[in-house]
Amino acid sequence: LVGVMFMVVIGTFAWASLKIVHKIPLTDALVMVVVTCVTVYSDLAVAVVVGVIISALAYAWNAASRINARIGTSKEGWKVYRLSGPLFFGSTTGFTDLFDPQSDPEDVVVDFIDSRVVDHSGLEAIDALASKYEAAGKRLHLRHLSPDCTRLLAKAGNLVEVSVLEDPDYEIAVDYGHTFEEAEPEKTA
Questions:
Q1: How far apart are CA 165 and CA 144, in angstroms?
Q2: 11, 24, 83, 105: which has the fewest Cβ within 10 Å?
């Protein structure tokens, strides 16, 4: 029976994966090695759980580094931080580091058009940021929150006290059958 099990293992192991181990991301290679080792020393069910946990932690680490902001100025003279990337427990430190309440103008807008507040830690990060701006005598405004983010803020109640700007109404562009002519291609010498 042991011999049959060894033959099954040898036959089902993806030996070709050893050839590409240096070409795949390090975290994937680590998961592959750890799952194989845990399977040998324990059992497959435990190995799958360990692999899922390692993959989830690696994903959270990578997602945490994706939050960033493009900084600009609105027509009112307000400083606008246009965020991109998720705001969750793993990215709150990076989120906080993006802002400078001391040197920012009176009104600051955090635009979430390319971002989302994912969890309670994100709400706490917004609340802490609002407190810093309030202590500096400045106002923090939020814009383009998704409906689920707005519901999170509503559930937070008194936790988050910032001004949520109303999103602008966007009109639908209507094409009444007009066609655009292509410009003649530039001639190169």
A1: 8
A2: 11
